[in-house]
Amino acid sequence: MKPSSKTQQSFETPRDRYMAFRETLISELTNDDSIKAQYLRTEFESKLLDPHFADSPEERRMRAIKKWLECEDTNRSTNMRLMHMDETDVLFTTRDGFPVSAVDIADTAARFIRETLGELPMDSLRGSFSGGASTGLKRGIGTIARKYLEGSHITEGAIWHFLRLSKTEAWAPREFLLVRGNEMFTVPKSTVIDRVACKEPDYNMYVQKAVGDLIRSRLKRVGIDLNDQSINNGLALEGSIQGNLATIDLSSASDSVTTQCVLRLLPDDWFHLMYDIRSPETEVDGVWHVNEMFSSMGNAFTFELESLIFWALTRAVAFHSQQKGRISVYGDDIICPSGLYESLESTFQFFGFKVNPKKSHWNDNFRESCGKHFHGGYDVTPFYVKEVPADVSDWILLLNKLRKWCADKGTGSLSGICDPRYYTLWSTFAQIVPAPVWGSSNLDARDQLVAPGRLPIARLLPKQRKHDREQSLYSKGAYLHWLDVTSERVEAGDVQTSSMVSDGRLRLRRCQRIHRDRIPLFPQEI
Predict the structure, then answer these.
(1) 8 confidence band (pLDDT: 50, 70, 90)
(2) Which of 182, 352, 167, 198 is nearest to 261 (CA)?
(3) Pairing between strand 153-154 and 177-178?
(4) Sign (positive/negative) of CA torsion 19, 24, 27, 33?
(5) 416: exposed, middle or buried (C-beta count within 10 Å: 0-12, 13-18, 19+)?
(6) Could you tell me which residues come within 8 angstroms of residue 157 by beta carbon, excluding any fewer than 6 positions away?
(7) DSSP 8-state code for residue 468
């Protein structure tokens, strides 16, 4: 077979192949009494969205919206509670018997935040766009570049801040189109419910990202690095061995940060800036909803803001409890001394946040944070099947995940030998993959199958077609993005210039034979 860009071949696979894979995998896991295998058995399909068994998209969407609105009802109560809190609102008692009130925690957390953020340097803020969808532009090819050239949506409160930040001389926004706020949309999450997010106005996102980037940089002053999940991974491992650290996860965390919470904890100048550039209302299926939450998923500073608040509240509880130990946050993934768990749970509840008991661990040998799972010092992180494999590309990814899982002996690094009990499963379904794409060493790839003794001669890539816009248009927008993100050496991320888009099909494309790193092998392959 001589692959080329003109190769015509069907890469779709029937559903019954996955059902056979699933049955065999469950059988092998049942016969494997290790904690790692038993955990994979319960988890590998926990995020699966199978259209054959899922409720209709309409039902999943309506459940998600209902949950979001119920969260807003809770937020309304939280706003009222925080507005009227006083010294009688006791959250917990110290080991010495002293009561700690909500006012004590709020004052201390606010002090930590004030010391961390410092003054608001408006003249040094640098805005830029991210690649997410906005109210004016859909997500797609050249999204960042197009926002510079075609964006227009903005809320009234954000106009002045945007004008102060958009200083690039080559960029003159064409016009403003005033909007009331953001737009809700949902994405698939599980077989029964979707996940809610919101599309922010175009130019609000520009200023929001500037504030988010600044908070991110200020958090580094106190050892919180939101660019590095491995910190939480290492602390979770330590907690699973020593029991000294708890891992805490919150439910609907970003949707539960209320306006009163931000007002009470952040310095006035920071609060007023963020209040101006947030979306005060959300359009839900044509109906405008006045938000009790401060910001939602989709706002470009939500992640940094929630991380800041959770860190400050956790540190305030530790301060008043007089408990020492490492505190780390990554969004709503929180790590703290295990002895803080109960006091922190009651504190979070008062401030409007709910601890997720399924994903929070403090009194056993299990810890989970930032995608890594540990039991008694061993890495038991599962792989997930989120969709039934529909084509060869999906199968490559699944089989590579299986090999990676089989090579992980729980030490946090891959060994050279895979568990031989799963070789028959891997080799049987590897026959789905065309021989020219066998031989990669990248266990996270979906374009080439990791396999021994071969050098791949092709890759499986999405077929592409030229977009109907001129390449020069994207180049101009990408250049404006580059000017913004390099003026103060901010990370540029994905500066998009390509005018090629996928048409949903796959093709084999010849690749150069190159030296591959060593890969983990099943004993049967040696």
Answers:
(1) very low
(2) 352
(3) parallel
(4) negative
(5) exposed
(6) 275, 276, 277, 280
(7) S
Determine the Cα–Cα distance for residues 279 and 286; give it in Å rounded to an integer. Answer: 16
Residue type (1 letter), 193: I
CA torsion angle 427 428 432 434 (round to 10): 40
Count of all residues that appear for the chain in the document: 526
pLDDT digits (tens, 9 = 90+) for 198-211: 999 999 999 999 99
Q: What share of the chain is helix, strand, coil (3-state, %, to 5)?
A: 45, 20, 40
One-letter identity of residue 129: F
Q: How would DSSP label each residue in 56-69?
A: PHHHHHHHHHHHHH
Instruction: Answer whether residue 428 is part of any domain.
Output: yes
Cα→Cα distances 366→41, 234, 250, 354, 363, Å: 16, 13, 17, 20, 8
Residue 263 to residue 135: CA distance in whole angstroms? 27
Cα 314–316–317 angle (5° rounding)? 65
Helices (H), 98-182: 102-117, 143-150, 159-165
Q: What integer pLDDT is reported at residue 450 of this predicted model?
A: 93
Q: What is the pLDDT of residues 373-412, one digit of tens each?
A: 999 999 999 999 999 999 999 999 999 999 999 998 776 6
Cα–Cα distances in angstroms (integers) from residue 79 to residues 3, 38, 84, 378, in the given order: 62, 43, 9, 42
Domain of residue 396 covers 1-44+388-457+511-526
Strand ranges in 116-244 using DSSP code E only, listed in sequence order = 153-154, 177-178, 181-188, 194-199
Distance CA 315, CA 336 (A): 9
Contact present, 255 and 243 (Cβ < 8 Å): no
In a domain, 477, yes or no: no
Does the residue 415 lie in any domain? yes
Query: How many C-beta neighbours within 10 Å does residue 264 have?
Result: 19
Q: How many CA atoms lie within 13 A of 331 on its CB side?
A: 17
Query: Phi then psi for 324, rounded to 5 degrees?
Result: -90, 155
How many domains, in total, are found in the chain?
Answer: 1
The packing angle between helices 471-486 and 143-150, to 10°, is 90
What DSSP state is assigned to residue 522? -
Contact present, 407 and 397 (Cβ < 8 Å)? no
Rounded (10°) angle between helices 392-407 and 423-430: 160
For residue range 56-76, list pLDDT tens digits in order.
999 999 999 999 999 999 999
Answer whether residue 169 is part of any domain: no
